[in-house]
Amino acid sequence: MSILDSKIPEGPLADKWTKHKNTINLVNPANKRNIDVIVVGTGLAGGSAAATLAELGYNVKTFCYSDSPRRAHSIAAQGGINAAKNYQGDGDSNYRLFYDTVKGGDYRSREANVHRLAEVSGNIIDQCVAQGVPFAREYGGLLDNRSFGGVLVSRTFYAKGQTGQQLLLGAYSAMNRQINRGKIQPFNRHEMLDLVKVDGKARGIIARDLVTGKIERHSAHAVVLASGGYGNVFFLSTNAMGSNVMAAWRAHRRGAFFANPCYTQIHPTCIPVSGDHQSKLTLMSESLRNDGRIWVPKRIEDAEAIRAGKLKPTQLSEEERDYYLERRYPAFGNLVPRDVASRAAKERCDAGFGVNKTGEAVYLDFASAIQRYGKEKALTSGIHDPSPDKITALGEEVIESKYGNLFQMYEKIVDENPYVTPMMIYPAVHYTMGGLWVDYNLQTTVPGCYAAGEANFSDHGANRLGASALMQGLADGYFVLPYTIGDYLSHDIRTGKIPTDTPEFDQAEKEVKDRIDKLMNGSGQHSVDYYHKKLGKIMWNKCGMSRNEKDLKEAIEEIAVLREDFWKNVKVPGSKEGMNPELEKAGRVADFLELGELFAKDALHRNESCGGHFREESVEQSGEQKGEALRDDKNFKYVAAWEYKGEPKDAELHKEDLIFDNIELKTRSYK
Amino acid sequence: MGGLIKSSIARKVAMALSGLFLVFFLLQHFTINFTAVFSPDIFNELSHFMGTNPLVQFALQPVLIFGVVFHFVMGFVLEIKNRNARAIKYAKYNGGANSSWMSRNMIYSGLVVLAFLGLHFYDFWVPEIVHKYIEFAPEDPTRYYTELLHKFESPVRTGLYVLSFVFLALHLWHGFASSFQSVGFNNKYSSAATKFAKVFAIGVPLGFVIVAVVLHFTH
Amino acid sequence: MNLTLKIWRQSDANSKGKLVDYNISGVEGDMSFLEMLDVLNEDLVNKGEEPVVFDHDCREGICGACSLQINGEPHGPDRLVTTCQLHMRKFNDGDTIYIEPFRAKAFPVIKDLMVDRASFDRIQQSGGYISVNTSGNTQDANAIPIRKEDADDAMDAATCIGCGACVAACKNASAMLFTSAKVSQFALLPQGQVEATERVMAMVNQMDEEGFGNCTNTGACEIECPKGISLENIARMNREYMKASMKG
After folding, report:
1. Per-position DSSP letters for A249-273, written without gaps between them
2. Topology of A271-429 in CATH?
3. Catalytic positions of A, please?
4. Residue A7: which residues within 8 A CB-CB, separation 6 or more?
């Protein structure tokens, strides 16, 4: 079954990358000028890859659906970026970053890839600073760090609460330099609709100019997909409205295996859904859990009264509250990892203790932190016998200095003052660890087609640690892919320009046009959003935070039925010529309707609980860990890579066994 | 002048510098006029000096005229360019929500001031030039105060004069403080400088108005 | 609440547009402005009409895609928010709301409320970067200490999301706040010094070529900027430009 060669270099873990770089083939500068590379997606991974490839001398074409590369959703990352710089002298090292990432991923990632990630992490910070990224600094003028969940050192670099934005603008400025030199040709407001293969190799794409509606052919010697994750299969997520799986899914249909689609990260602290009109969810930074205490009422009557608006949370005494994370996980308390915190919130809400009108919210309360900081501040400012009001005021000042912008954002959205009334939060889909299967060189199973960033599956296993997504995107784009792709392209120096007037391009373009016609010619009963919301409901209820065999089987059937209905009855107004956002959405939802089914199939086959994937059938039955997630290393210590075979439910499984030579597999315990 | 207006920032700086120059001239003009309220002799003496000193007449006066012409020509150029930058107007534009009336209507306050300057030239400067350099009339160092009084006899003329200075105040209210920003002066002293500029913008035109009103009602 | 919307409809760049009235009911205060438009669009689609086209993406106020001139102000009446974060509780039952595209010669309309802001990209491409290759041997990030105040000011300038509200608010459709934010970010950092002269000249020239208006210091941009970018940046750019002009 396994035809998967991960191409991990031989040798000791710490030497693999250096040795590999030294031995792979290179393309000489004069030849690079004759080689074209297409990069789809211009977020952190795509933007940095495009800039670096152009610096090296390749002719790069970039594609993004936004009006500018600067708007890619990497921009929304708040917290920071990890790097093993050990500037704080707290014992950090490449090995520690590697170890934390593998452990945090619940031992479902590839050792060699993660170690390489840790090795280049320091270079990323150097590169970004050289580009003028304004990271936060201490008064001495040196870079500041903060700490994030799941680790014991301070290794997170940040730029206020807008780290993703600043890093993306850095990559975008590197791109701009190459655009100015003519080495990058940007195709903005363009969407990739298919991958074109010639003689089994990726040789171009079919794209739609979203402004004119024109279907275009673009050829290249290699295609890099950096099109992000697929969290929007849930309809509601913290992803941008346009984030989609189309590029990756089209490649999958052309032969690229899709790995671990069921690994989804559900972030515990998001602003809850307020009604049916909701279009997306807003994340509140993980850092809030440093000071906020999470609770629901102890008695179900109180929860009901709160939902009915008859009772206020502040009227409940300490004894009437259930600080369930502190109760269940005394060692880590409110700082348990994301997957654990999310499941615990769902468990309480499912049991009827939810506190907003939909019953899907828990409190994140800063009252005790305000009191604690207030007393401290009074003491340090020499105020004796401060009044309770004074303590509260001082405490609120401290909280404001730490989280002011988040509190303001919450107040704008929810219209409640979080200093007075506890915040309401609920988990939401945030990131997808799964993605296109790639080997050590980031090449998919289609030769010449590469995947970088969230679009590939490689580094986070079954759960991603905070501040690691930015690190991976930039590592892939700046430091890994531009070199590994040279090994492949070195065979193409005599190929010459790839023509687009070949039968392969004809065929691909025809298929794309037929598909658009089919979308435009639905019976016109329901809008695209109608289907997207229905799919989202199935995904959230049956493939969400906790999964079981029965639900997953139902989901597979329901999604197939929904997909059939979609193709018959979808309504796409307007015309295929010119700007038509409904048509764009329709194409994306059509692919989500296929991916969703594969997602459920993958979740069904993986009968273990690991990281973000929780199977109700696989829990600890006894002992201290009773009821917690139970990983099954004996049967599932592998990457599940799915090969497209027509219907998603017919996909064929290929396994890449994960080998852990350097790390001992352990149970994650937070008790 | 081509180099001076080659870019938007150069134009902006040129506008600010010519404006600051005119502000300086205004202060000097105001000082002389104001002496008329309490001492006709000092007024005559200063006016005589300004009217006959060759340095003032043949060096400063052309510079001043150039400054005025430059400032208003540039004002028109900018206005046209700025209007072109938004070919289709908003159906609803709520400028009051984010900026002052004065800042948005410099062209109108400027036009009123320009109209007044036209009047002033016709009324004062042209007769002066004719008097001095065409008719070569003999100089009487005490004529200025009487001529000044004569100007403010008519209530209509005085009213127009007052109105013009109200618009000058509106123009200065935005223009003076704004010129600091244009020349790149924006730091911890800015709020003090802005306050000074605002006081100046009210105070100096008010002073001119006082001179006119006092002379009108006392004679 | 029930609202009357006067929305600019224009089928493409070359056609003439006009304001069209729509009545919408059942709007809730918890909805964002864009969610209100989603409801309208769902309605239009179900009626077989073309939905209103507008730019949007992240819907959390950071990507800078959403725009809209709402009742004569970019991003509407609230301060320090983008349209996607503007909530309907800021409006009252029975209100009439004008919704127009950001208007500037340099922002041509693509369709309805969607405009082309590629001019901003071209300004950045002309010099809004530091020329450094991705070698992996760049000097250590802590090799040059930078005063915290300078780093913080650079960060404040760098928070610009490139939405174009400054241009939309300005009575002259000037792009000085946007351009100056980028110039400032690099002018405040030692890494940016080497190319400072070329950068400011190139970016200002490009800005002028795009057909943006001149700055007359009305300050509207600063008030309407969803990220609170300060006018100080414009003053800094003016200084940088004068300095660069003198260098030749």
Report:
1. HHHHHTT--EE-TT-EEEEEEEPPP
2. Flavocytochrome C3; Chain A, domain 1 (3.90.700)
3. 338
4. A439, A440, A441
Q: CB of A651 within 8 A of CB of A644?
A: yes
**What would the mean pLDDT of B144-169 be, rounded to a whole number?**
94
The number of C-beta contacts closer than 8 angstroms across A and C is 215
**Closest alpha carbon to A265 in A83, A454, A406, A532:** A454
Q: Is the dihedral of CA C191, C196, C202, C204 positive or negative?
A: positive
* pLDDT beneath 70: ranges in chain A: 1-2, 150
C:172-231 residues touching chain A, CB 8 A cutoff: 185-186, 189, 191-192
Superfamily holding C117-247 = Alpha-helical ferredoxin (1.10.1060.10)
Banded pLDDT at B1 (limits 50, 70, 90): very low
pLDDT per residue over C102-116, tens digit each? 999 999 999 999 999
Q: Does the beta-carbon distance from B184 to C236 stay under 8 Å? A: yes
- pLDDT higher than threshold 70 for residue B4: no
pLDDT in tens, B49-90: 999 999 999 999 999 999 999 999 999 999 999 999 999 999
| 0.90 surpassed by pTM | yes
| Predicted pLDDT at A524 | 86
pLDDT score of A2: 56
Q: CB of B188 within 8 Å of any CB in chain C?
A: no
The partner residue sitting opposite C148, judged by closest CB among A55, A138, A173, is: A138
Taking an 8 Å cut-off on Cβ atoms, the answer to whether C55 and A529 are in contact is no
Taking contacts as CB-CB distances below 8 angstroms, the residues of chain C near A70 are: 64, 121, 162
CA neighbours closer than 13 Å in the CB half-sphere of residue A603? 34
Confidence of residue B3 (pLDDT cuts 50, 70, 90): low
pLDDT for the residue B2 = 47
Which chains contact A through at least 3 pairs of Cβ atoms less than 8 Å apart? Answer: C
CA distance A474 to A198: 30
Chain C partners (3+ C-beta pairs within 8 A) = A, B
C3-110: CATH, from 1.20.120.450, 3.10.20.30, 3.30.70.100, 3.40.190.10:
3.10.20.30
Residues in B closer than 8 angstroms to C216, CB to CB, are 12, 78, 82, 103, 106, 178
Structure tokens at B105: 């209507």
